[in-house]
């Protein structure tokens, strides 16, 4: 049964890239932009995680609750 | 050889979490959460097979399906409460995690009340009045 492991690598990649951009922007003196980039990254990742959580809850309902 | 895949996935996710945690703890938390979800999605197909076999045995034994359904619901509530509580505790909110566990226990107790009532009525009807 294949499962979607790519999401883990995607989230780790987004995290590393956001941290990098954050550092670069802060060095360039644009601290406010850096905060916005962090917020954007967190929103994107949160969207992915939310879709996974929804899938998990649907499966649990299918298997355990509503036969 | 499914267990090797799962252990490998867990190890890779742990390494990634440690890498990301230094810069952004939020992303590390998300990785941990999604790893738990993926492992469970992997397992749920097998759990469904076992449950189907149990159901077939229950039908053959002329068991009332309400009892099996209640037990399955309890297992579902227990799993989902445990999952949520562990993730919340990982994020450092032990108090909220305890409340989630309490809610799971209370909801399971509420579902068990009809069965307990049936048992007690059966026992009472055994006594000669």
TrEMBL record, chain A:
The keyword Ligase belongs to this UniProt entry's keyword annotation: no
Keywords tagged on the record: Membrane, Transmembrane, Transmembrane helix
Q: Which InterPro entries does the annotation name?
A: Spore_III_AC, Spore_III_AC/AD
Q: Is Transmembrane among this UniProt entry's keywords?
A: yes
> Where along the sequence do coiled-coil regions lie?
none
Membrane-spanning segments? 7-25, 37-57
Q: Which residues form the signal peptide?
A: none
Q: What is this protein called?
A: Stage III sporulation protein AC
The taxonomic lineage of its organism, from the top, reads: Bacteria, Bacillati, Bacillota, Bacilli, Bacillales
From TrEMBL, chain B:
Give the transmembrane ranges.
27-45, 66-87, 107-127
Key word rRNA-binding present: no
Give the keywords, sorted. Membrane, Transmembrane, Transmembrane helix
Is ATP-binding a UniProt keyword of this protein? no
**Organism superkingdom:** Bacteria
List, alphabetically, the NCBIfam families matched.
Answer: spore_III_AD
Official protein name in the record: Stage III sporulation protein AD
Q: Which organism is it from?
A: Ammoniphilus resinae
Print the organism lineage.
Answer: Bacteria, Bacillati, Bacillota, Bacilli, Bacillales
